[in-house]
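S.,

Sequence below, as promised.
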Amino acid sequence: MNNRDRSLAILRYQNYDKMPVVHFGYWRDTIAKWSDEGHIEKGLDKEWGDGNEVDTYISDKLGFDFNWYNTFTPRLGLLPSFERVILEEKSDGTRIVQNWDGVIVVEKEGVSSISSEIDHTLKDRASWEEKYLPKLRFSMDRINFDKLNALPSVEERDRPLGLHAGSYYGHFRNYAGVVGSSYMVADDEDLYVEIIETIADMQYMTTKTVLETGVKFDFGHFWEDICFKNGPLVSPGIFDEIVGPHYKKMTALFKKHEIDIVSLDCDGKIDALIPTWLENGVNTMFPIEVGTWNASIKPWREEYGSDIRGVGGMDKVVFSRDYKAVDDEIERLRPLIELGGYIPCPDHRIAPDAKWENIQYYCDKMKKAFG
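The prediction came back faster than expected:
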């Protein structure tokens, strides 16, 4: 049994020989710090990407089996994207920039967190039709067929391979902002619906085209990031009514192509949106952020039964502490693993405060406990 087979067996509630020890990548600052400490070579932070050779090298050095986030991702956003333009440079080193999504943001040298948004190009129907609609049409240019055809076959894979199918609300939220998208549903509901449908139709056609090449995938995947620590950034009722049917259409397409595991990456407290996702074919939550709200597969399993699976939910904060904290976290995970349909994974990118030796200790102890 290889890591692909055992991972899929776990998520299908089948027998497996051992639990794979997986991660969800790192901040580039983390990799740079580990280079400075002498654990790995210099410059790898600039070469790292999910699932690439550098990622595999670091995984092996730490003791992870693989990076869970291993997907083929077509171009599912703006095509072409906006040109990044520096609009103003200030004396304190900050810059006012139009980014790739047409959003006006404040950037500061050396700061890697999400930039503050101060304005948006997408405001109304006129800006939608002129600036965004032409960039959200389906075309074959969205798919890198050379990369697609070079993917390993099912027989050659040692880890699951996913197909990224897009984002029905998260991209819209990025373009218009939380405030802009929230007002639009009240001020111009027809436009609100049209934007979501345009994005969803383009992503459906792109995914359908990829699947019709005959390349096989182990799971389908969505991204949203539309929740914060207290709940969704969109009304659950509106999300269910307007966005839910697009999920159902896409997951039916997955089912037609024998893809039965469908995961979704949404940060924050996602509980109020889970019913919509489950009812429309999404069955695996990832990365289950422990955060300040203590997200866990356990209460979801109690409410929804075996319909819901999970990858994530391991509190990566313990990597900044000591071996005892790591031991305690592994023991906290033990009853969750026993539920089945669940693979622990650090609950997001591993941050720069993580200690190299703590992660090695975690990987070693996980393999001894669940191997």
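Residues 189-211 form the longest helix (23 residues).

Coffee later?
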